[in-house]
């Protein structure tokens, strides 16, 4: 869940002015975890997936932090996926999503964001650090995963901002935006009820306000899949529709999932079917 939600709740009660900064917008653990429980992660996969290999991965950032994550490999993989999770989404508590990727015959690399899960943290959190981390993670994945199959970036919720940025800086075969954010100011505006704006003022720090997924999509030309829940009130369908309309890609698909809320897409059969079609189609290009 976005950290901004409880802050807005307090705002509604106080009727004050509040500034949204990276420290208030982006989730950070008080104390990070030591290591991943690979046995527990493996147990969440289907028992018949005996050939799936699960391993821990790590890298050191330019500013000296250790980021940790997980790698899933299967011998019959159709593509490599670099997954950027949602705000506050940790491998230790959300590793069940790897089962869906495995069902789709995909290799996966997924790192916890700095200051979350098993990745180290610093006192100050900056957007540029997350962006730099994302490029380091991409380069790591590119060197660690098989080179003879396509590469896909999958960004969920806040990860859609990280994923689009990475795709703008690196060559990638395809991009999946799941419960995507169009821009941080639009997200904040959507989360604040209109009646409360009479009594309260919300401003967004410049480094967050400058994040514009629409602008990134205008220059994105590779295949694109957008997944969004019809009942998603955090990142509504309108966000994904705007990104779809803006994307320069000639091969783009918007899949709206009935009866689905925020961050629930990959649990839905319709999403997995759309994902499988997408992999098949761009693999033929």
From TrEMBL:
The family database entries (Pfam families) matched by this protein are listed as:
Hydrolase_4
Give all residue intervals belonging to the Serine aminopeptidase S33 domain.
Answer: 78-201, 217-263
This entry's Gene Ontology molecular function terms read:
hydrolase activity
InterPro entries named among the record's database cross-references: AB_hydrolase_fold (IPR029058), Hydrolase_4 (IPR022742)
Keyword list (alphabetical) reads: Hydrolase
Q: Does the keyword Isomerase apply?
A: no
Q: Which SUPFAM superfamilies match?
A: alpha/beta-Hydrolases
This one is known as Alpha/beta hydrolase
């Amino acid at each position: 869940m976005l950290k901004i939600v409880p802050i807005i709740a307090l705002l509604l009660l106080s009727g004050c002015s509040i500034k949204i900064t990276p420290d208030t917008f982006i989730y950070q653990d008080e104390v990070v975890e030591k290591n991943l429980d690979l046995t527990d992660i493996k147990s969440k996969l289907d028992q018949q997936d005996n050939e799936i290999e699960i391993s821990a991965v790590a890298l050191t950032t330019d500013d000296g932090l250790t980021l940790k994550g997980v790698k899933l490999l299967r011998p019959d993989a159709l593509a490599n996926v670099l997954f950027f999770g949602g705000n506050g989404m940790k491998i230790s508590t959300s590793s069940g999503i790897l089962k869906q990727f495995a069902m789709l015959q995909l290799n996966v690399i997924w790192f916890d964001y700095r200051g979350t899960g098993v990745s180290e943290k610093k006192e100050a959190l900056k957007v540029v650090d997350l962006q730099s981390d994302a490029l380091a993670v991409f380069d790591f994945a590119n060197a660690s995963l098989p080179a003879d199959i396509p590469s896909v970036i999958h960004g969920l919720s806040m990860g859609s901002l990280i994923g689009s940025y990475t795709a703008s800086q690196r060559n990638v075969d395809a991009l999946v935006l799941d419960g995507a954010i169009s821009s941080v100011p639009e997200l904040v505006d959507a989360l604040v009820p209109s009646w409360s704006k009479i009594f309260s003022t919300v401003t967004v720090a410049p480094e967050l306000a400058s994040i514009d997924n629409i602008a990134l999509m205008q220059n994105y030309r590779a295949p694109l899949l957008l997944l969004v829940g019809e009942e998603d009130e955090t990142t509504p369908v309108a966000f994904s529709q705007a990104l779809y309309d803006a994307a320069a890609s000639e091969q783009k698909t918007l899949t709206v999932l009935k009866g689905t809320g925020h961050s629930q897409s990959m649990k839905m059969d319709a999403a997995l079917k759309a994902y499988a079609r997408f992999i098949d189609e761009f693999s033929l290009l």
